[in-house]
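Retro notes (design track)

What went well: tokenization of the new backbones is finally stable.
What didn't: we kept losing track of which sequence belonged to which structure.
Fix going forward: every design gets posted as structure first, then sequence, in one message. First example under the new rule, 242 residues:
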């Protein structure tokens, strides 16, 4: 779908002084996309760059970047800004077909995040944190409303586990999304806040939290540090039913 974006023939929009080596810059332009590893895109995405990005340059790399992202590879030092270059492309630069593919990817990727397996006993993987992923997609220029609606309607019990984990730590204390990368994105925080605070949404998630499927899964969820998952459940449920 993105084949119209040919590999760039001129130097990429990167800092060759200290961010990206000349070898990596050359390989990004000359190697087949499938051969490019995550570490090359890590340098490319973390580099100093222009405020507005070339849609043809980003469009060429985009299929491989999304593939690596879906494989849980690190293409930036922070998941929230992994698609920063995409968000810097001019508005309406994608064809209708390209935009449809991007929207399908976002929904499929987010669905995997919601339905994925347990995150472990002592830590959360940011790649698997739904609110971090929503922020990443917002930074990338995606509409997040369809994704939040999908989360609301998703009956998979792990999607509710994800809701408990991420909102317990990152929302309910201040009733605002507490992520450093969201500090300068008030519109994103407003959307998340209104979605979480809507009475019908709170009731919907409270109902999910008393379902037999969720309660059975919650029994096997490990703590985060010294905080048990049961404590998280109690804290979130209390906020939802107030």
């Amino acid at each position: 779908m993105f084949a119209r974006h040919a590999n760039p023939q001129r130097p990429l929009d990167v800092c060759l002084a200290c961010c990206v080596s000349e070898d990596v810059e050359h390989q990004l332009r000359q190697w087949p996309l499938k051969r490019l590893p995550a570490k090359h895109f890590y340098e490319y995405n973390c580099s100093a760059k222009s405020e507005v990005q070339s849609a043809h340059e980003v469009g060429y790399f985009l299929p491989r970047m999304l593939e690596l992202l879906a494989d849980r590879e690190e293409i930036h030092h922070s998941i929230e800004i992994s698609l920063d270059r995409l968000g810097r492309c001019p508005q309406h630069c994608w064809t209708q077909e390209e935009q449809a593919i991007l929207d399908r990817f976002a929904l499929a990727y987010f669905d995997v995040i919601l339905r994925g397996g347990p995150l472990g006993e002592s830590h959360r993987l940011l790649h698997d944190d739904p609110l971090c992923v929503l922020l990443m997609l917002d930074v990338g220029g995606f509409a997040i409303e369809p994704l939040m609606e999908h989360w609301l309607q998703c009956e998979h019990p792990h999607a509710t586990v994800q809701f408990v984990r991420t909102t317990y730590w990152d929302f309910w204390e201040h009733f605002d999304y507490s992520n450093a990368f969201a500090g300068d994105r008030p519109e994103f925080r407003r959307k998340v806040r209104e979605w979480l605070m809507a009475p019908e949404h709170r009731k919907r998630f409270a109902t999910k939290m008393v379902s037999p499927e969720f309660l059975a899964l919650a029994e096997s969820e490990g703590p985060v540090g010294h905080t048990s998952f049961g404590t998280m459940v109690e804290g979130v449920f209390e906020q939802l039913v107030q």
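Added context from the reviewer: The two ends are 48 Å apart (CA to CA).
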